[in-house]
Every structure is written in structure tokens, then in C-alpha cells.
């Protein structure tokens, strides 16, 4: 089997919204440095991306919007299209930096489509909120949408997109809401309680594509056990019914209990369990084809580097044991830059990832979300929403 691919180049750090903005590229740098210090990337050739072309960006965005992005750094703040806001400030070389993020995810997709890799990971990707004609939620161009569109034109006609970010994967859902070839599944904090306010269970896809949009809105403070119970109650059955040829996953880590922008309560151990589950599902349902990208995550030092090191390691089949201590070289680097930062001791939060399967007598707010989603979507795939075996 061809070796998994890791896409990375320090040029991706140029996607920098500046100042005190939470979407700080230092999280990417620290993740790659931690994976390197732990030996996860030993003898792994890193794929160096090139910027996506305009033709490739048109798969997800309008020509008018691309022109606005190009002109924004010179035009100042009044450019419209969601640019120049607190969430999406204008920055120098914004078009070039955002195009490179898209190109990095496309590079992973190409390696999978051409058979050069069964799996690929790009932690710089995952800009899932960007819409066709405007920026949204820290996202200028939608690399997920572009990559899925490209895959649809290069040998694939059934693609499953799984979004584990704490925020609803609204941009990708919007792009494929009427396309029965793409199954979009998003597990996120309930839209009553968190931006962007979409992702209800009743959002199931447009006419002709009913059942291919799947949303599992989870209550605030959901822990590892509840999150994993909800995931396993919905996702494996739908993948078995949909039979995807490739799995694309957005692996945001802002679902962590320490994330400052949201209110779910997962641990690094929960993230590790999610990635291992995604790998298994790709092997079982997509002939091993798995394209993984990053996403949100705003605890820049304690959480993102560890969680995405686990992601890279899982893609490479170099799983890092939870009890592994943090390397002194990495902690020394962090302390040199942030001497007052409180660092974890190792690659675990001590989280318990055991969970009680859905249908085993539990009846809490998580199970309400599961029931609502199953009843909205399962019949559209010929599945029984009330039968735990489906």
C-alpha cells in the first residue's frame, strides 16, 4: 500500500489574521514541531504545496469574490463580501495565503485520486465556513469545498465529508446541499448556543439530495463519552448505506474543554479516539481513502499541538500512546517563547473515552439529539431510526 502523505510547508503560516486574532498560525507551527520532536515525522517526506489557481478556486467561489479578496489589502476595510470584519480582517497577501491553503488540501486530494497515497493529512486546511461569495468565520477560501469538487471531477462520485469541529460545517453543507453525490455530516455544538446558528437535525438536504446533509447538534458541556456515543449512533450506519469512495474529514479541535470560543468538553484523549475511529471507518467503507484536514482550535499551546500531533500520527499509523511525555526540546521551545504558559505533562488529559452505546437505556440531552437526527435522516437511507442495530 502507498505511504500516507503529509502536506506541510512553513509558507502556510502566512495565513495570519494578525494581532490578537484567535486564529493564530503559531498553533500549526507548534503542532508540526511537536510531531517532529516525538519522531512522528521521521523519514516522512513532506509534500510542499503550490497556491490553487483561479480556475480551481472558481469551484467554490465567484469571480467577483476572488477579485474582492485580491483588492481588499489595497482597498482598506470597506470592501464587503464579509471582508474587513473582526472575524475576517484584511491582511497583506490575503489572496496568496488563502490560495496556498486551498492548494495544500488539493495536493492531498490529488495524491489520493492518483493512487500515490491512500491517506493524506493537511492540518493547515479545514476552512469550512467560507461561502461562495463571502468570507465567514475566519475562512477566506473554502479548501474543503474545492477539494471535494475536484475529486468529483477526477474519478469519484460518492464522497463522504465528516466535520468534527465544534462549529457547524456550514460552508461545505451549503456547497453540496443539493448534490446527492456528497454526504455531509457535522457534529457540533447546538446552534441555539453557538455561532453560526445553523446545523439543526431537520437540515437534511435539498430536493433530489434528501438525506445527504446530516447534522448532530450537541448540547453544551458534552464530554467524550456523549460525543462518541452520538457519533457511533449515526455515522457508521450512514456510511455503510452511502458507500463512499473517499472520506474527507475536517478535524477541528475547538471541541476541547479548554477552548475559549466554545462550550463542549472533550479532551485530547477524545480527539485521539475520534481520529482512530475515522481511520477505521475509512478502511471499512472507503477502501482506506482518507483526506484529513485541520480546522478550528484556539487553545494554541496546551491543546492544538497535541491533538493534531495525534491526528498526523493516526494518519501515518504511528499512533502516539497517551502516556507519552512531552519532549523536553518542545517544552523548552514553548517556555522560551511563553515563559508563564502552563504546559501539560504528556499527550493525554487523562480523559475516559469509554462510552455506553446508544439504545442502552440512557436518555439525556445527547440522546435527544441522536433521536432527532436518526428520525430525520435514517428513513431516507432505508434505515430504521428506532432500531439500535441500524
From TrEMBL:
Keyword DNA damage listed: no
CDD domains: HDAC_AcuC_like (cd09994)
SUPFAM superfamilies per UniProt: Arginase/deacetylase
Domain spans labelled Histone deacetylase: 21-314
Gene3D superfamilies: Histone deacetylase domain
Molecular functions (GO terms): histone deacetylase activity
Family recorded in the similarity comment: Belongs to the histone deacetylase family.
Protein name: Acetoin utilization protein AcuC
Organism: Prauserella shujinwangii
Amino acid at each position: 500500500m502507498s505511504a500516507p502523505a503529509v502536506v506541510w510547508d512553513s509558507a502556510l503560516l502566512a495565513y495570519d489574521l494578525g494581532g490578537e486574532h484567535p486564529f493564530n498560525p503559531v498553533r500549526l507551527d507548534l503542532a508540526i514541531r511537536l510531531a517532529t520532536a516525538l519522531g512522528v515525522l521521521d523519514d516522512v517526506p513532506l509534500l510542499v504545496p503550490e497556491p490553487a489557481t483561479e480556475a480551481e478556486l472558481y469551484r467554490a467561489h465567484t469571480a467577483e469574490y476572488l477579485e474582492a479578496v485580491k483588492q481588499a489589502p489595497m482597498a482598506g476595510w470597506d470592501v464587503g463580501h464579509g471582508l474587513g470584519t473582526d472575524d475576517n480582517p484584511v491582511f497583506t497577501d490575503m489572496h496568496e495565503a488563502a490560495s496556498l491553503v486551498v492548494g495544500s488540501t488539493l495536493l492531498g486530494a490529488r495524491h489520493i485520486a492518483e493512487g500515490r497515497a491512500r491517506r493524506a493529512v493537511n492540518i493547515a486546511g479545514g476552512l469550512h465556513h467560507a461561502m461562495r461569495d463571502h468570507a465567514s468565520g475566519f475562512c477566506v477560501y473554502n479548501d474543503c469545498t474545492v477539494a471535494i469538487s475536484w475529486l468529483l471531477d477526477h474519478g469519484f462520485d460518492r464522497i463522504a465529508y465528516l466535520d468534527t469541529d465544534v462549529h457547524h460545517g456550514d460552508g461545505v453543507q451549503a456547497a453540496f446541499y443539493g448534490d446527492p453525490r456528497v454526504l455531509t455530516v457535522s457534529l457540533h455544538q447546538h446552534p441555539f448556543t453557538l455561532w453560526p446558528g445553523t446545523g439543526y437535525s431537520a437540515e437534511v438536504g435539498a430536493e433530489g439530495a434528501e438525506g445527504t446533509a446530516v447534522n448532530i447538534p450537541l448540547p453544551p458541556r458534552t464530554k467524550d463519552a456523549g460525543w462518541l456515543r452520538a457519533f457511533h449512533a449515526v455515522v457508521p450506519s450512514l456510511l455503510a448505506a452511502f458507500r463512499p469512495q473517499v472520506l474527507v474529514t475536517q478535524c477541528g479541535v475547538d471541541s476541547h474543554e479548554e477552548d475559549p470560543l466554545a462550550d463542549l468538553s472533550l479532551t485530547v484523549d477524545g480527539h485521539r479516539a475520534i481520529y482512530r475511529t475515522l481511520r477505521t471507518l475509512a478502511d471499512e467503507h472507503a477502501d482506506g481513502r482518507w483526506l484529513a484536514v485541520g480546522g478550528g482550535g484556539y487553545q494554541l499551546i496546551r491543546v492544538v499541538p497535541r491533538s493534531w500531533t495525534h491526528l498526523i500520527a493516526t494518519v501515518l499509523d504511528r499512533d502516539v500512546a497517551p502516556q507519552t511525555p512531552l519532549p523536553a526540546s518542545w517544552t523548552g521551545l514553548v517556555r522560551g517563547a511563553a515563559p508563564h504558559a502552563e504546559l501539560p505533562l504528556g499527550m493525554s488529559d487523562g480523559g475516559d473515552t469509554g462510552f455506553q452505546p446508544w439504545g442502552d437505556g440512557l436518555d439525556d440531552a445527547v440522546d435527544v439529539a441522536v433521536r432527532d437526527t436518526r428520525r430525520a435522516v435514517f428513513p431516507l437511507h432505508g434505515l430504521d431510526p428506532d432500531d439500535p442495530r441500524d
